[in-house]
Every structure is written in structure tokens, then in C-alpha cells.
Amino acid sequence: MIKTTQLINMELKRGRTENIERYLSIFDEAKHNSYISHGEVICGRATHDLKWAKDIMTQMKKEFVDYFKNADKYIVFEIYCEDELVGFAIIELYRATRVAVLADIMIKRNYQGGGIGTEAIHKIEGCLKSENIDMILLESGINNKNVHAYFEKNGYAEISVVYSKIIT
Q1: Which pLDDT tens digit goes with each residue over 56-112?
Q2: How, if at all, do strands 74-81 and 84-94 pair?
Q3: Which residue, 41, 70, 86, 101, is the most exposed by fewest CB within 10 angstroms?
Q4: Which of 120, 88, 104, 100 is nearest to 39 (CA)?
Q5: What is the strand order of the sheet 135-137 is part of?
Q6: What are the φ and ψ backbone dihedral angles of 9, each rounded to 5 degrees?
Q7: Is residue 144 a contact partner of residue 36, using CB atoms and an 8 Å limit?
Q8: C-alpha–C-alpha distance, residues 80 and 84, integer Å
Q9: Considering the entire predicted model, what is its pTM?
Q10: 149-164: per-residue pLDDT in tens?
């Protein structure tokens, strides 16, 4: 894990289609079941019992291709530390209401906890402000407590709760 108390050499760049395999590698390495929320279930990334779908990597590849095809609706950001791609973020834009959804942010595990994600979030917020976006929404799996604390520390507040029931 990278820990630092000094300035972080983190850079944010717009994503490129030629890096999709690299994003998939980061996703595969960083994903865990506590990350799963209702959004993953709705789109088929996860099963009703909150486990990753068997074809998750195939599905993620298709989603990345779609993000780049719909660049007016999505922004893919690459997160670099010391010139190494260590993460990505996917933003979904709702320009009419001036809202963005942070659909995903993934950082390689050995880079988590050192401030890179926080710096990336601040830079993403700045980019979105320049795009005339006033609000960012996100969702997180109920058991992802460390991530909840991270977002709250960065000024995000809980605004809703989602319930589910498996009908048998």
C-alpha cells in the first residue's frame, strides 16, 4: 500500500479506447463483493445474491466500449501515479439537470489508502464543475463501510437508502 504525507504526484487524463484491457485488469484486481450495490444487480454485473456475475469481465469490456461510443453521456478518466495507470473513474452525465453520477472509481489495491483516490475525486469534481455540473451522485454496496467513510470524509452525504427483496 502506498502511504504518503507529502504531495501526491497524481495525474488525471481522459480515457482512451486502447486502454480498455488495462481498465479491465484494474477492475478485476480491485473488485470485491462488498462493492456490489443495486446498480450492479440491475445491469447484470452481479447476481441477486450479491456475487459477481460469471461473465463480469466480458460484460465490463462491453460497457467500456459503450462508454466510449457515447462520449456525450460518459467520461472515462484515467488515474496515474508516477506515470503508472493505477485506476479509472467513469462518470455518467445528465446535463439537463446538471447532475453527474460517479458510476465507478477503481484504484489498484496497493495504491489505496495513500490519498490518490481523494486527489482524483477532487480533480474530477473540478472537471465536472467546468462542465457546468452542480451535483455528483454515487452508490455503494451496503457492506462497503470503508468506502462510505471515505466519501463522507470528502463531503458526500447519504441521501437515500435502497431496499430489496427476492421474490420466491
Answers
A1: 999 999 999 999 999 999 999 999 998 999 999 999 999 999 999 999 999 999 999
A2: antiparallel
A3: 70
A4: 104
A5: 10-14, 74-81, 84-94, 99-107, 135-137
A6: -90, 75
A7: no
A8: 5
A9: 0.90
A10: 999 999 999 999 999 9
